[in-house]
Design goal:
The structure is a single chain. By secondary structure, the protein is mainly beta. It folds into 2 domains: 49-133, no CATH class; 141-400, Outer membrane phospholipase (ompla), Chain C (Beta Barrel). The protein has 2 helices and 26 strands. It has helices at 2-35, 102-107, and strands spanning 49-52, 58-64, 69-74, 76-78, 84-87, 97-99, 111-114, 123-125, 131-133, 141-148, 151-153, 156-158, 162-174, 182-195, 199-211, 218-222, 228-232, 236-250, 253-271, 278-292, 300-314, 321-330, 333-334, 347-361, 364-377, 388-400. Strands 10-13-14-15-18-19-20-21-22-24-25-26 form a 12-stranded antiparallel β-barrel. Strand 19 and strand 20 (278-292) form a beta hairpin. The protein is elongated, with a radius of gyration of 32 Å. The relative contact order is 0.11.
């Protein structure tokens, strides 16, 4: 019995010792975590003073008269040992200059805390003072990309295909202070080339606009129970494409489709609050011209009705993740067909794409892009009329890409 009691007592003492050790470890870990908490960040919107201490070293100082706290930081980037390397980049102008007298500030009731210099919106500054961009607008950029583009056509797999993508300019404009805010989207000289076999497509200009109307188009009022009003707002916009081009390698040589102009009305089924992302349907028509390298008797001009559903969704506030989608139907109708010419054709296309920023080179984002698509068409003599399945995996290097608007 005594042995059992001693065993039980020993077990309790062991548990108490373990508890004290765990408490001490928790206290140590807590103090370590607090010691490694992010230092205070100076506010970009508030004035900062450029001061020098008695040794002539430059400092940025920002004092708050209400909290009686002064945050200060070196005016230079630091190495891992705290040595000054070079002046800080992307800094606001100094509000004034003078002597950094820490004793005088403490005597005046201020508490001095070493922190991080101010950083502009969309950028991040680490504890060494180095600044880099972490917020990107991939709808305002120039880009060049490439990758692998395997394909399945007529039941045969082709894993040797590659793709080159390019966009001379992508730009957007939005003013949230308008009574009915609009987002204007412009793309210039955008397209892609695929090799083995050859295929090229692109356009000179594409423009569209989305509108968030604050005034309701129709108002419904119900009187069952508490009266309530329901507003229905128009989300109509427009889509325009100019000078589209497609070149396909067929059994009868190259086939070229010139898309002179496309005009669509759009309706946004869903809009983000700033109109940056959307899911919409659009419809209208285009005028096109088919030119064949061989068999010129089949050259023809067509009026082509079209409908499409489009998705453009930026998944995060910093612009790192983008999801795009397209489902389209086009039906070329030959104008004044000659004997033996095809008078009616169909083009179907579905595509889903995902782009994610992986890293940046000199603050220019490099992204990974993946996509998959399925197409079917019967408008080009000598070209496959079955389903063609394709996928891409590659990189895009973007220039410009400033921070997204707040």
């Amino acid at each position: 019995m005594n042995k059992v009691a001693r065993a039980v007592g020993g077990s309790g003492q062991t548990r108490r010792r373990q508890g004290r050790i765990a408490a001490a470890f928790t206290l140590l870990l807590s103090s370590t975590v607090h010691a490694e908490e992010a230092p205070l960040q100076m506010d970009w919107e508030k004035p900062t003073r450029c001061l020098r201490d008695g040794k002539g070293l430059a400092w940025r100082v920002q004092c708050d008269a209400e909290t009686r706290v002064c945050v200060y930081a070196p005016e230079d980037e630091l190495d891992a040992d705290g040595n000054r390397l070079r002046p800080l980049e992307r800094m606001p102008p100094c509000s004034d200059e003078g002597l950094f007298d820490q004793d005088a500030l403490r005597a005046d009731g201020f508490r001095l805390v070493q922190g991080v210099p101010p950083t502009p919106y969309g950028w991040y500054r680490d504890r060494f003072g180095k600044v880099f961009q972490y917020n990107f607008d991939l709808h305002r950029r120039l880009y060049l990309g490439g990758g692998w583009a395997p394909e399945i056509r007529d039941g045969e797999q082709n894993a040797r295909r590659s793709v080159i993508e390019f966009g001379l300019l992508e730009w957007q404009s939005y003013n949230p202070l308008d009574r009915n805010p609009k987002r204007h989207r412009l793309r210039l000289v955008e397209g892609e080339l695929r090799l083995a076999p050859f295929w090229a497509t692109g356009y000179l200009l594409r423009y569209d606009v989305s509108v968030k109307r604050r005034d309701p188009l129709v108002r419904f009022t119900t009187f069952f129970g508490e009266p309530r009003r329901y507003d229905m707002r128009s989300r109509m916009g427009m889509f325009l494409e100019v000078a589209g081009l497609e070149v396909r390698d067929t059994a009868a040589g190259n086939a070229t489709v010139w898309r002179y102009g496309t005009t669509n009305l759009t309706f946004d089924l869903w809009q983000s609050s700033d109109l940056y992302s959307f899911f919409r349907i659009r419809g209208g028509g285009l005028v096109e011209r088919l030119l064949l390298e061989q068999g010129a008797t089949q050259n023809r001009t067509s009026l082509t009705p079209n409908v499409a559903a489009e998705l453009d969704w930026t998944l995060d506030a910093n612009g790192f993740h983008h999801l795009t989608g397209l489902a389209s139907l086009e039906s070329p109708r030959t104008i004044n067909p000659r004997d033996g010419q095809q008078t009616f054709a169909t083009r179907l296309r579905g595509e889903l794409g995902y782009e994610v920023i992986a890293l940046a080179l000199n603050d220019q984002p490099i992204s990974l892009r993946f996509s998959t698509s399925a197409t079917r068409r019967d408008d080009i003599p000598g070209f496959s009329t079955g389903w063609i399945y394709s996928a891409t995996a590659g990189l895009r290097f973007s220039l410009w890409a400033p921070a997204r608007n707040r």
